[in-house]
Design a protein that fits this description.
The structure holds 2 protein chains of 2 kinds.
Chain A: H1 28-36, H2 40-62, H3 65-82, H4 92-111, H5 118-131, H6 135-149, H7 152-163, H8 168-175, H9 179-196, H10 201-207
Chain B: H1 2-14, H2 24-49, H3 62-67, H4 70-81, H5 86-89, H6 116-130, H7 138-145, H8 149-153, H9 168-186, H10 193-207, H11 216-224, H12 238-249, E1 257-258, E2 264-268, H13 274-284, H14 296-300, E3 320-325, E4 333-340, E5 352-359, H15 370-383, E6 389-396, E7 398-407, H16 411-420, H17 429-442, E8 449-456, H18 467-479, E9 483-489, H19 496-505, E10 507-513, H20 516-525, H21 527-531, E11 533-544, E12 549-555, E13 575-578, E14 582-591, H22 613-621, H23 630-633, E15 635-644, E16 652-659, H24 671-686, H25 698-707, H26 716-732
The chains are: A mainly alpha, B alpha+beta.
Chain lengths: 213, 737
């Protein structure tokens, strides 16, 4: 028949399934093995649990809402086939972060030297118009743009440590390097950021986040 | 700990900048996409298990299509190959069944099949040029201006370095380089992949000397295998789609052809107008459109021209021809060829059996999406005849029938169903398509227009593992007589490529609806022409007389060029034309003996500096003697038009000689011809075509358009004028130039 599930004659314009999953108290690895064995709900619950994390990372990396949404969606779809390959040697989140970052790097490679995407420009203009009013929003936007301008490896480090709250060691596991390397990259990143944001670190320290130029 | 100190510093730097929470709609969409992918994988596993038992009798399931996936892949690869190397060795793929109409519309081969030696030469030259050895400094300049486009485009313009005003010197250098590039590019044959890539790169550099360098490699890669990486990720990211758009748009600007070497020009008509809507939207949004989004012929064809129409459907059109001095170049002339399709009298209009497949996913919420779509549907319903039928299927997560096939005589019931549509939930278009086709078949009528019309913001592919499979499904359904059209909504237009592809393979139309006015144009004013094709595979060929025309250039239609021999080959697919549609093509021609200045790509001017003007004049005044009768030698060229009636497989031919004494002043050509010239001029400026003299500007376009605005009942010409003014303002702000 025409429909995979649900009665074909009913309109299903309402929101789909509930978000309270019966497996919501299961740990990640239990969900993963169930999902790999075909448990639909377990997979749903897993995605539901980690979507925000994926999106956050994508946003920080790309600095653009729709692109991040697209990327996050691509990643969760990718997970379907990638999940069986998760061996359980590391924490799931470590593995997931790596998967997301790899995907983002792939996208960046593909988009290198590509021309302006008019849609993005639209959105930016809109955001600029909406947010122009508040200094804070502008500052935060500038900061996001600055993170976005960091070289890829430095950006990875900043996002994992600063936004994801990971230790340098944990970030190192994701990035496949030592914790010390992460620390070094963070230092580099800070130098770059203060250049990009136009203020030396010492001055900004006292400003505490008010990055009005 | 050190960690704390570091984080503190980062805090100070980044302040409260935190990524915003994902929108619920996006979250739901992603969830649903993941679940669909999960289901597809599980289903595939099951299918594999019971593959032997499974007999797909009548109804193809999607799993079947997935199972047969390698086939379409191979075919499409070959199809794509025709654009590149294989075109040299093979005229057209013999594997295609000529009886089967299921070829995609744009399977064109390139016109210039130069010798293989030339291709090899281009291939050898490529690395040199690409590494900047021939054009030193171009790549480096661009690269230093903008490290990557992704970062640049993510910042709002005021902060961006993009808008930095180029110095006069830089402008001058860029112009010089552009000319140099264009000249180089005109020497590179178009029939090799590398040659095309090279040309493209050169032309793009011309187009945006101080904007962003485009590496054609990525676009080209997408072109060769646009969907390879989509097997699991059915929702292509916006960037990939833009890349796919490039497949059409990145065609290099048609160069001038020497009549002696290449007297014949062949192309397929194009009645799409999506490029105009897109340009309008971009300009209204305060930006000049990216040059490659401008398809000149689509801009010109957006407008109605009152060409003469025959009254007999057997000869569905007669060409209207005008020759006048070019408004954008000194010394050249424009050859204007217009055709208008036979207008089907209202009484003869076939019955319509329409099934709407409406995307009601969360992303359709905004005012320019579902609400505009509903408004469009209401308008359209008002246009239909009482015995036409309409059915509606909504898809969001699961597909459902909103309205069983209902005759227009029960209009209120239809309108109620339209009102009930509401956005929410996520997209999984595959199921919906099957349901929609099922309803269309239920009510199938041989004499009716049977169409499934998708209305979406572009996310309808979620839930299908492979766009190629979807395309095949649509092709198979087309064979059964149900066509498919796509109405695109919403900002960004980013699924344009997929929409166009599906509609072309479904023998339908693709329209981008950005405003209620556009909806009115497509679904009310032109409903008959959009729904009722009067001729298909319409091709135009012009043979120029070298005694009269030394060079010519087709303005636009870059992606529609055909090989000379394709014209008489009925197996080669070309564009359809609907009732009352107008199609216009402009050639810029250089009359023999004319001295034309300021034209970079004209090869005979390449050594102009080395020769005295007198020399050139002398050269040009002495065309090679040809034995032509007096009657023939007075002809500029010979126009041939080939078409098939909708239900015939053999083409018919219309011919018309074009006399050199048909040339007249532009003022005497009439408003339609002048207005078409204004639009073409505008499009070329937006495209930053260097085929247009530097002195020609938006002011000239405006004057030309104002003079030819006419009665303008639809108000579209007035709107055009406002866009010209907008573009003029924007270009003065130095965003691109």
């Amino acid at each position: 028949m025409a429909d995979g599930e649900g009665p074909p004659t009913s309109t299903s314009l309402s929101k789909p399934g509930p978000t309270d999953w019966r497996q919501s108290d299961w740990p990640d690895d239990k969900l993963i093995s169930a999902a790999v064995n075909g448990d639909r709900d377990a997979f749903g619950c897993l995605i539901d649990r980690h979507y925000d994390r994926i999106y956050r990372l994508a946003y920080g990396w790309m600095g653009q809402r729709e692109a991040a949404e697209d990327a996050a969606q691509d990643v969760v779809v990718k997970l379907v086939n990638a999940l069986p390959k998760f061996g359980g040697q590391s924490k799931f989140t470590t593995w997931l972060h790596r998967l997301v970052l790899n995907h983002l790097h792939d996208i960046a490679r593909k988009n290198k030297r590509r021309r302006i995407d008019p849609g993005v420009v639209f959105e930016d203009l809109q955001i600029a118009a909406n947010e122009m009013a508040t200094d804070d929003a502008l500052a935060s936007r500038r900061a996001l743009a600055a993170v976005n301008d960091l070289p890829e490896k430095l950006r990875d480090a900043v996002l994992l440590v600063h936004w994801e709250g990971m230790t340098h060691e944990a970030a190192g596991q994701v990035l496949g390097c030592k914790g010390g390397t992460v620390s070094w990259r963070l230092n580099e990143a800070k130098t770059k950021l203060s250049e990009l944001l136009g203020e030396p670190i010492e001055k900004r320290d006292s400003a505490r986040g008010k990055s009005k130029p | 700990m050190t960690k704390d100190r570091r984080d503190h510093e980062l805090d100070a730097l980044l302040g409260g900048a935190e990524p915003p929470a994902p929108s619920d709609a996006a979250r739901e969409k992603a969830m649903s996409a993941a679940m669909s992918a999960f289901d597809a994988v599980q289903e595939a596993k099951e299918e594999q298990a019971k593959a032997a038992l499974h007999q797909g009798a009548d109804e193809k399931t999607f799993a079947d299509i997935q199972a047969s996936e390698p086939q379409p892949r191979q075919r499409s690869r070959e199809q794509r190959g025709r654009r590149g190397w294989s075109g040299l060795f093979k005229r057209r793929p013999g594997t295609r069944d000529p009886e089967q109409e299921s070829r995609p519309m744009r399977t064109y081969s390139y016109r210039n099949r130069y010798a293989i030696a030339a291709t090899v030469l281009a291939a050898l030259a490529t690395p040199y040029v690409l590494t900047g050895k021939i054009i030193p400094g171009v790549d480096q300049d661009l690269a230093s201006l903008l490290p990557t486009s992704s970062t640049a485009s993510q910042r709002p313009p005021p902060i961006s370095a993009r808008g930095a005003d180029p110095t006069l010197e830089r402008q001058r250098m860029a112009a010089l380089r552009a000319r140099e590039n264009e000249r180089l590019s005109s020497q590179i044959p178009t029939n090799s992949l590398k040659g095309m890539r090279l040309r493209e790169q050169l032309l793009v550099q011309n187009a945006q000397p101080n904007a962003i360098a485009e590496s054609f490699d990525s676009a080209q890669l997408n072109h060769v295998a646009p969907t390879n990486n989509l097997t699991v990720a059915p929702s292509p990211s916006r960037q990939e789609i833009i890349g796919n758009r490039d497949r059409f748009e990145a065609a290099p600007v048609n160069p001038f052809q020497q009549t002696k070497q290449e007297p014949v020009s062949t192309f397929s008509i194009d009645v799409d107008t999506a490029s105009y809507s897109f340009v309008r939207r971009t300009l209204r949004g305060g930006q000049l459109p990216p040059p490659e989004a401008v398809r000149i012929e689509e801009m010109v064809n957006y407008f109605d021209y009152s060409y003469s129409t025959p009254s007999d459907p057997a000869t569905p059109f007669e060409p209207t021809v005008a020759v006048y001095p070019s408004p954008w170049n000194q010394g050249t002339q424009i050859l204007h060829v217009g055709i208008k399709g036979y207008e089907v009298p209202v009484a003869e209009k076939p019955r319509s059996n329409l099934t709407f497949l409406i995307d009601t996913s969360g992303s359709m919420t905004s005012a320019d999406k579902l609400p505009l779509l509903q408004q469009s549907l209401r308008m359209m319903v008002e246009q239909l005849n009482p015995d036409d039928t309409v059915a509606i299927v909504a898809y969001a997560g699961n597909a459902g029938t909103v309205l069983e096939p209902t005759p227009i005589s029960e209009r209120s019931q239809i309108l109620r169903a339209i009102d009930r549509l509401a956005a929410g939930g996520s997209t999984a278009g595959g199921e919906g398509i099957r349901l929609a086709y099922k309803l269309a078949r239920q009510n199938f009528d041989d004499d009716a227009v049977n169409q499934v019309i998708i209305g979406t913001d572009g996310d309808f592919n979620v839930g299908i593992t492979d766009p190629n499979a979807l395309q095949d499904y649509i092709e198979a359904e087309r064979a059964s007589g149900v066509f498919l059209s796509v109405l695109g909504f919403g900002q960004g237009n980013y699924n344009d490529a997929l929409m166009q592809r599906l509609a072309q393979n479904g023998n339908g139309f693709a329209a981008y609806i950005d405003t209620a006015d556009e909806a009115r144009k497509v679904l009310v004013d032109e409903l008959t022409s959009t729904l009722v094709p009067i001729a298909k595979d319409v091709k135009i060929q012009i043979e120029f007389n070298p005694n009269q025309v030394s060079e010519y250039r087709l303005v636009g239609y870059e992606s529609r060029m055909l090989a000379r021999e394709d014209f008489d080959d009925d197996r080669v697919d070309a564009g359809e034309i609907g009732a009352g549609h107008t199609v216009t093509a402009l050639y810029e021609i250089v009359p023999v003996g004319a001295l034309v200045a300021e034209r970079g790509q004209q090869e005979s001017l390449r050594y102009a500096d080395a020769y005295s003007t007198a020399n050139i004049l002398q050269q040009r005044a002495e065309p090679e003697p040809a034995e032509l009768s007096e009657a023939l030698s007075g002809e500029l060229g010979f126009l041939k038009l080939r078409y098939k009636l909708p239900n015939e497989d053999t083409s018919r031919l219309i011919t018309r000689p074009i006399q050199s004494d048909e040339a007249q002043s532009i003022e005497s050509t009439g408003q339609d011809v002048q207005f078409a010239a204004a639009v073409a001029g505008f499009a070329q400026l937006l495209r930053r075509s260097s085929a247009v003299e530097r002195g020609f500007d938006y002011g000239d376009v405006e004057r030309l358009a104002r003079r030819s605005e006419g009665a303008d009942r639809s108000g579209r010409r007035a709107e055009f004028l406002s866009l010209v003014q907008r573009a003029a303002e924007l270009s003065n702000q130095g965003r691109y130039r």
